[in-house]
Amino acid sequence: MKKIFLGFGAAAVMAAGLSSCGNGASTNASAEDKALGDSTATIIGEFAAARSVAEYQQMKEMQPEMAAKFSKAAYLKGLKAVLDADTSDMSYFRGLQMGLQLVNPIIGINQDAGVPVSKDVVYAAFKKVYEQDSVADTGLYFQQYQNIMRDLSQRVEQKREQALAESDEAKANLAEGEAYCEKMLSEGYQKTESGLVYKIINPGTEPKVTAADRAVIEYTGKLVDGTQFDSNAGHATAMSVAQFVPGFKEALCLLGAGGKMVAVIPPALAYGVKGAGEQIGPNATLVFDIDVLEINPKK
Predict the structure, then answer these.
(1) Among 18, 95, 266, 276, which residue is least crowded by beta carbons within 10 Å?
(2) 259: how many CB neighbours lie within 10 A of its CB?
(3) What pLDDT does 25 receive?
(4) Residue 73 confidence class, pLDDT cut points 50, 70, 90
């Protein structure tokens, strides 16, 4: 979303230098220059096409429904329309550049945020401000733009999380994690008010770890099916307690130096519906073996 919403200037960087060019090569060019021009044109076209093919392949993998509706013929038609535009009229060409830059965020907001942004309203607003002799405070418009894009980005993220939460994987992970927590509780584990399920093997010495501490911790993290996704066993180093997910941080604060425990962290106290990396899926419950070796070690 950020790339779609905020990328107004990307296309203009290269295009700005072309605004005085005509539609074709100069008729006064030498044969050598014409050959160089044709070679350059071929390389530019092939390079841009290769990138477009790669983007299309990525679309097929990540957004198959969109790819199925995508027409290469229509794509080429749009490309040709821009390349055939009258670039000898600098004012017209600059307006064309701005229009192309505005289309991306409009499409992105319509599709990703589900907010109907009218091109006619965009044009009317642009025209109203553009026809003024001057703008007293461009910073005001920029601030409004940043604010609305931030709100829209949050809306997109909320929609993405909602879709993830309703996925079969997220529902299965949540049910599996809840069943695992109940099983551990039946075997003598304890549960905090926040939902952390744990078993202290050795509480360690006082004082206990606090969120403001740095601690040398050895840990191994697994999913409830036993799949290991992380471990620093044998390579423990001092880390800031505040950096950890809420459930891990809460577990650490139950231990002192020399303490050892097993912590079962539900998704609400871990990575939630977003998951993390390739192994921690949406709504995954995490199981950690934790050893606190030292608190606030001297440098």
Answers:
(1) 18
(2) 24
(3) 54
(4) very high
